[in-house]
Write a structure and sequence with these properties.
The complex is a heterodimer of chains A (189) and B (184). With 189 residues, chain A is an alpha/beta fold. Chain A is built from 6 helices and 4 strands. In chain A, strands 1-2-3-4 form a 4-stranded parallel β-sheet. Chain A is flat and about 80 Å long. Helices cover 23% and strands 24% of the residues of chain B. Chain B has one domain: Beta Polymerase, domain 2 (2-Layer Sandwich). The chains are: A alpha/beta (189), B alpha/beta (184). Chains A and B meet through helix 3 of A and loops of B. The structure holds iron/sulfur cluster (SF4). Iron/sulfur cluster (SF4) binds next to helix 4 of chain A.
């Protein structure tokens, strides 16, 4: 999973029968990113049919455990990857926002299915036209519902993003807001 | 098919039945707003009719059909004893959209009537909790009226109380109840 180190051969003084020990050198930052990408804890925000597809992704047939993301948590405080799977109506919006804000940073959001991503075919009076109206989204998964492979691909994309050290969209929004606040302050001086 | 039902209603309400149709055994009667409650009570209490089950309360907006009055409230009743169904309709004008509640007849109409209020803006006089049920607190207008723009949305910023129809005492009772044998 992206950890590349060099193999250092060591021999102990006085003994050449022991097998050589393996040593990897890397940076702490890279190590942390590797660990984060390999241990995403999903929080399912399942509101409709897409959540059923999510269930098949985490269960034995598709086995999300292969990607280190099988520890599904129903407490936002114990998870770092929110998967919004389903139609989010306006009445649900503040609940989604509240749960999202209770998650500890660093955190990522996957918008699963067209309902969560753009409202889908619910172009109507009661459905949010994409959850990015209220929470920053890292990966969108198209489909109605997306195939399990689609969601797995999204999680792999997210892992790549984390390993590259890119900030989550949440961080991008925070940074932008901080920069704007700084500018406003400078403008006042 | 349901002749005895119609005869029974004719005997009791006579000319107050504004319109009757019985297409394919689908009995529908129209009655004035002032007597609809009386009719519902009769449908339920009369031993011959015995419409014990109110399956749905809904409404129709006849705006694009030029209906006068504009709305109709529709009650779908079913009798478990005789196996008959009846549809009771009553016209409701736009400038005074009020009908007597049927909660005192069938308790189940509570949420149906709230839904009709939410979607069509028709209020039910005497309902114990006449407020929206599907749309949120900050929603304005009534979404199933024909003149409501289909994709006009209203944003909600703070969570709506989803359990507010449960009284505080009832809520405490629910909380106090042991929910799992292990915690006993
Ligand atoms: S995208 Fe399709 S499958 Fe997913 S919640 Fe919407 S309607 Fe259901």
């Amino acid at each position: 999973m992206g950890l590349k180190g060099e193999r250092v051969e060591t021999t102990r003084p006085g003994s050449d029968t022991k097998p050589p020990e393996s040593v990897f050198t890397t940076t702490l930052d890279k190590m942390v990113r590797w660990a984060r990408a390999g241990s995403l804890w999903p929080l399912p925000f399942g509101t409709a049919c897409c959540a059923i597809e999510f269930m098949s992704v985490v269960s034995s047939h598709y086995d999300l455990a292969r990607f280190g993301a099988e520890v599904v948590r129903f407490s936002p405080r114990q998870s770092d990857m929110m998967i919004v799977a389903g139609t989010v109506v306006d009445k649900q919006a503040p609940i989604l926002k509240l749960i999202y804000e209770q998650m500890c940073s660093p955190k990522w959001v996957i918008s699963m299915g067209v309902c969560a991503s753009s409202g889908g075919f619910y172009r109507a009076y009661h459905v949010m036209q994409g959850i990015d109206e209220i929470v920053p989204v890292d990966v969108y998964v198209p489909g109605c519902p997306p195939t399990p492979e689609g969601l797995i691909y999204a999680i792999m994309k997210l892992q790549e993003k984390i390993e590259r050290g890119e900030p989550s969209h949440y961080q991008v929004v925070l940074d932008r807001e901080a920069a704007e606040a700084r500018e406003r302050k400078l403008a006042r001086v | 098919m349901a002749e005895f039902v119609l005869e029974n209603l004719r005997r009791r309400f006579g000319d107050a039945l504004q319109r009757v149709s019985d297409d394919h055994g689908d009995l529908t009667v129209w009655i004035g707003r002032d007597r609809v409650h009386e009719m519902l009570v009769h449908c339920k209490r009369d031993p011959e009719l015995d419409f014990c089950f109110c399956m749905d309360v809904t409404a129709v907006d006849y705006l694009s059909l030029g209906g006068d009055p504009r709305f109709a409230v529709v009650y779908h009743l079913y009798s478990l004893k005789t196996g008959k169904r009846i549809r009771v309709k009553t016209g409701v004008p736009e400038d005074d959209p009020v009908v007597d509640t049927a909660v005192d007849v069938w308790k189940a109409t509570d949420w149906f009537e709230r839904e009709v209020y939410d979607m069509f803006g028709i209020r039910f006089e005497g309902h114990p909790n006449m407020k929206r049920i599907l749309c949120h607190r900050d929603f304005q207008g009534h979404a199933l009226r024909k003149d409501y723009p289909a994709d006009l949305r209203w944003k909600l910023l703070r969570p709506d109380d989803l359990l507010d129809e449960i009284s505080t005492e009832e809520m405490q009772r629910i909380r106090a109840r042991v929910s799992h044998p292990i915690s006993e």
